[in-house]
Design the sequence.
């Protein structure tokens, strides 16, 4: 494998030792071994990578130099937000009051409000993510059976033995 003369063998080894990013370190190590004269198959064994990955890494180094081995994912800003800061402010203001149809705010209700008021059609995932980023948490009352007798439940709690003295799988006897 031919390796371009961007860095000397010693400089490549220094990059391997000093690299803080594990991806970058792995790539420099592959190029270092290629510069030493090892084959792609031998380098793949050493680095626990595929021969194709080794060949592509060396090709990238030859084409772009040491900068080509950097992990460029760190500079990726990601997808731009679905709502502008002004729109997010309006959503936060709307959430301070009750929803237009009364009751409690839900994801689908907020999604419909955003579509109607802001003219943006969003799925539920960005709505829930936005609520989470704004500090809101899901609050749902515990389910209660419609025919439950609260007085009978309290009486049972007072007369039943403590869990530690019960028999059966939960009691441990």
Sequence:
């Amino acid at each position: 494998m031919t390796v371009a003369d961007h860095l000397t063998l010693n400089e490549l080894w220094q990059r391997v030792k000093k690299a803080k990013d594990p991806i970058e370190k792995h790539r420099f190590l592959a190029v270092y071994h290629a510069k030493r004269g090892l084959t792609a198959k031998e380098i793949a064994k050493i680095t626990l990578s595929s021969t194709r990955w080794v060949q592509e890494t060396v090709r990238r180094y030859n084409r772009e130099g040491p900068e080509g081995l950097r992990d460029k994912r760190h500079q990726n800003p990601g997808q731009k937000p679905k709502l502008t800061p002004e729109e997010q402010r309006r959503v936060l203001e709307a959430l301070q009051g009750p929803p237009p149809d009364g009751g409690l705010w839900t994801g689908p209700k907020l999604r419909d409000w955003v579509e109607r008021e802001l003219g943006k059609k969003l799925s539920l995932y960005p709505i829930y993510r936005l609520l989470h980023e704004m500090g809101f948490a899901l609050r749902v009352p515990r389910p209660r059976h419609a025919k439950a007798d609260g007085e009978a439940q309290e009486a049972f709690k007072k007369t039943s033995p403590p869990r530690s003295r019960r028999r059966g799988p939960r009691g441990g006897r």
